[in-house]
């Protein structure tokens, strides 16, 4: 891959699992490590892009040329992206966004009580960030990820269409050495009107470069 191919472009990458607060000391989240998002931010910066990394994970080294924006919840992630959306050329949603959040956030730590051994949480649906952005889309090339545990291609194809994406990177997270928290990943790339492209297992660093290479021809 030649250098500097994203010179003058702004790329926003999201990373990590969103944290959905229950109370001041508790949240609901998931196993996403943020590794894929960080690798993508680094690969985009290597190509000369201005890179904004909107992440729930901030204990990792920030790659050179990358600006980190720290967020916690899906709603914060959406707001952080919307504030910058008009300036973006590419948005890559590598974050694992929680589908639901607690319906209310308790101001004080939730207490256990002696009179009941069971408690239920009421959850409400989070906004779908990609779907929301699709409605405001102009020049932006939007790329999504789909972690599936069954019927990978069918489920991913549905998401590609539903979220109106230029590219969807689908991976099978039912296997241990790929996807969530692993250093390697094996994905299938879906694009509208194109046959699925299955990539071999590779490091997330190598995969990030392969993905950036495939995003370049999608830019207007
Ligand atoms: O959770 P789901 O499989 O639908 O995620 C597919 C893609 O959509 C991912 O790129 C994820 O970051 C994004 N997503 C989103 N807003 C949500 C849920 C997922 O943008 N509320």
Automatic annotation (TrEMBL):
Alphabetic keyword roster: Decarboxylase, Flavoprotein, FMN, Ligase, Lyase, Magnesium, Metal-binding, Multifunctional enzyme
Signal sequence, start to end: none
Catalytic activity, reaction form: (R)-4'-phosphopantothenate + L-cysteine + CTP = N-[(R)-4-phosphopantothenoyl]-L-cysteine + CMP + diphosphate + H(+); N-[(R)-4-phosphopantothenoyl]-L-cysteine + H(+) = (R)-4'-phosphopantetheine + CO2
Cofactor binding note: Binds 1 FMN per subunit.
Cofactor(s) the protein needs: FMN; Mg(2+)
Chain positions recorded as CTP binding sites: 99, 109, 127-130, 145, 159, 163
Region described as Phosphopantothenate--cysteine ligase: 11-220
Source species, domain of life: Bacteria
UniProt pathway annotation: Cofactor biosynthesis; coenzyme A biosynthesis; CoA from (R)-pantothenate: step 3/5; Cofactor biosynthesis; coenzyme A biosynthesis; CoA from (R)-pantothenate: step 2/5
Sequence ranges assigned to domain DNA/pantothenate metabolism flavoprotein C-terminal in this UniProt record: 6-216
EC numbers for this chain: 4.1.1.36, 6.3.2.5
Family: In the C-terminal section; belongs to the PPC synthetase family. In the N-terminal section; belongs to the HFCD (homo-oligomeric flavin containing Cys decarboxylase) superfamily.
Functional note: Catalyzes two steps in the biosynthesis of coenzyme A. In the first step cysteine is conjugated to 4'-phosphopantothenate to form 4-phosphopantothenoylcysteine, in the latter compound is decarboxylated to form 4'-phosphopantotheine.
Name of the protein in question: Coenzyme A biosynthesis bifunctional protein CoaBC
Gene: coaBC
């Amino acid at each position: 891959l030649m250098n500097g191919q994203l010179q003058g472009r702004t790329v926003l990458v999201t990373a990590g699992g969103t944290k959905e607060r229950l109370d001041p000391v508790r949240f609901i989240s998931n196993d996403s490590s943020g590794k894929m998002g960080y690798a993508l931010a680094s690969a985009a910066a290597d190509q000369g892009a201005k890179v904004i990394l909107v992440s729930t994970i901030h204990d990792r080294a920030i790659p050179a040329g990358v600006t980190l924006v720290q967020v916690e919840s899906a709603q914060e992630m959406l707001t952080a992206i919307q504030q910058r959306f008009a300036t973006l050329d590419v948005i890559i949603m590598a974050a694992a966004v929680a589908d639901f959040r607690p319906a209310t956030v308790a101001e004080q730590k939730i207490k256990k009580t002696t009179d009941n051994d069971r408690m239920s949480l009421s959850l409400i649906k989070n906004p779908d960030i990609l779907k929301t952005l699709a409605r405001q889309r102009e020049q932006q090339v939007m790329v999504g990820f789909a972690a599936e545990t069954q019927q990978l291609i069918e489920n991913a194809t549905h998401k590609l269409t539903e979220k109106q994406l230029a590219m969807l990177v689908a991976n099978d997270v039912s296997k241990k050495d790929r996807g969530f928290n692993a250093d390697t990943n094996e994905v299938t790339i879906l694009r509208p009107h194109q046959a699925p492209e299955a990539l071999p297992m590779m490091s997330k660093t190598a995969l990030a470069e392969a993905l950036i290479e495939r995003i370049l021809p999608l830019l207007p």
